[in-house]
Design goal:
Blueprint (H helix, E strand, L loop, with lengths): L1 H10 L12 E5 L2 E8 L3 E8 L4 E3 H4 L4 E7 L3 E4 L2 E4 L5 E4 L5 E4 L6 E8 L2 H7 L11
Antiparallel strand pairs: 1-2, 2-3, 3-10, 4-9, 5-8, 5-10, 6-7, 6-9
Amino acid sequence: MESQGKKVSAERTLKILRREESLRSRQYRGVCVRVLYERDSWEILRTDMEAGSALDDREIGIFPAIHFVIEGSPVFQVAHQTHDLMPGDSIALEEREQYKISNPTSSRSSFLSFLVKNSATQKKEGNHGLTGFRGG
């Protein structure tokens, strides 16, 4: 029985998908957005917002998104509604849904964003967000 356990664990190996190749970031007006992982159809971002900072949907991209709050209390303004979020909260936004994210608190806010990139939208409209950004 013990030899079977060792055999299974020996067959399973860790596969590193990318090693820092996809990590890009942009910092401006107290907001630092890092592209953690990128594929043709999706992207993962980490955003850190200093106190009093804000960004809107045009600065991230025109894609449907799910945002997961890690730290702080960012405020999401979607249409005419305001959503105060806390660590552990998440919010899903549709394509073309306009929104603004702000950090009105005195401490930093951080969240992960999962963007679903639609290649038809990308080709038609172009991307005005970070997915085309190359920098450090």
